[in-house]
Amino acid sequence: MKHLILFLISFVVVYSASAQEKNWSLNGYVKELFMYYHPEQQLPGTDTRDLTTNTIHNRLNFKWYASDQVTAVVEMRNRLLTGSLIKEFPDYQAVIDQDNGFLDLSFVPIEGQHWFLHSVFDRAYLDWTSGNWQVRLGRQRVNWGINLVWNPNDVFNSFSYFDFDYEERPGTDAIRIQYYTGLTSSAELVYQFGETANEMALAGLYRFSRWSYDFQLMSGWVGPDYVFGAGWAGDIEGAGFRGEITHFTPRENDSTSEKATVASISADYTFPNSLYIHSSVLYNSHGKKGNAGSLNLLLNDNLSAKYLSFAQYALFGQCSYPVTPLFSASLSGIINPNDGSWYFGPSLSYSLHNNLELMTTGQLFFGKDRSEYGDIGQLLFARLKWSF
């Protein structure tokens, strides 16, 4: 009944908007993603070492401009998943069908013996703007991150670098109030809804510019912790220079949470021939100095800004180059210097036609047993994307 009500509400919004001319928009994409997975060790309960999935991924982005001040947004993703991974790992459906928000907007409308269709509303909000004020209520993306790989300041919507097929990133159920104090400065306050204090959050952010740099300061309460953080973005001799740092301290003395400081610094540069390079360093005060323990990509671990990596240090590097205007290549890698495990990610993309792109990429993990990347294995992907 809950899902039926959500569909009816969405239908009414779309129908009402279409009754008026030129005050709404609808766009999205359709993607076909094939994955081949060779785990380092055969997964428990499976009969084969090599696993595959095929995902037809559709996204719909709807906006209704109700007035000059009010905009309604509803966006959803639908994924039809098939393959031997679903057959051999029946619990995978439960892993995918998760919603960590205050409202459960994730559901499986239809399913078969070895396939299922998963749908989720990851954006559903009302936006009101008047003068220097902007208020947004509902499921939305609260993006406080600055860096391109690891974002300690992104305390509301942390994401995994390895989840490359989810460009929009997750949202949170919250009310967000912003006040623009100048052309390059603003203050905002975000309250995240939750059933318990450890699921709620209340934090503020102030952005400003000085010395040709953009700065931000943040503080508040996020789940079991108080948080204090800062970030910057600028350049040095034409090279981008960014950084973020966040300190977490438990709100209660008897809390199971622990103090932690997470920081990341990155630099990137584009040469005159369009070669792009990017490097980043992550520091976790609570990270492990030895074997970090295996990262599990299939179980979709609930990532947070406090646990961006299991290790105390992580190093990232990337280079990309547009071989032709239609064809580009990229190489990226991550090293855990504490346990010696590492990740390697080659990628190729080709524009077949307007709004039609073919991409192939790999996620190759190496290392010894019980290291962060040593027990994962190798994944290969091929994706065809059509945008409309």
Structure description:
The protein has helices spanning 2-18, 84-88, 92-96; strands at 24-39, 51-65, 70-82, 106-111, 115-130, 133-140, 172-182, 185-192, 201-210, 213-222, 225-236, 239-250, 260-270, 276-284, 313-322, 327-335, 342-353, 356-366, 377-387. The mean pLDDT is 91. It is 7% helix and 54% strand. It is globular. The protein has one domain (30-387): Porin (Beta Barrel), CATH 2.40.160. The chain has an 18-stranded antiparallel beta barrel. The two termini are 31 Å apart. The longest helix is centred in the N-terminal third of the chain and has 17 residues, at 2-18. By secondary structure, the chain is mainly beta. A hairpin with a 2-residue loop joins strand 10 and strand 11 (225-236).
H/E element string?
HEEEHHEEEEEEEEEEEEEEEE
Structural class: mainly beta
Low-confidence stretches: none
Share in β-strands: over 45%
CATH topology tier name? Porin
CATH architecture: Beta Barrel
How far the N terminus sits from the C terminus, by CA atoms, comes to: 31 Å
CATH C-level name: Mainly Beta
Number of helices: 3
Give the rounded overall mean pLDDT: 91
Summarize the amount of helix as a percent range.
Answer: under 10%
Largest sheet: 18 strands, antiparallel, barrel
Number of strands: 19
Query: What is the total domain count?
Result: 1
Shape: globular
Radius of gyration: 22 Å
Task: Offer a concise description of the structure.
The chain is mainly beta and 388 residues long.
Give me the secondary-structure topology.
Elements: H1 2-18, E1 24-39, E2 51-65, E3 70-82, H2 84-88, H3 92-96, E4 106-111, E5 115-130, E6 133-140, E7 172-182, E8 185-192, E9 201-210, E10 213-222, E11 225-236, E12 239-250, E13 260-270, E14 276-284, E15 313-322, E16 327-335, E17 342-353, E18 356-366, E19 377-387
Antiparallel strand pairs: 1-2, 1-19, 2-3, 3-5, 4-5, 5-6, 6-7, 7-8, 8-9, 9-10, 10-11, 11-12, 12-13, 13-14, 14-15, 15-16, 16-17, 17-18, 18-19
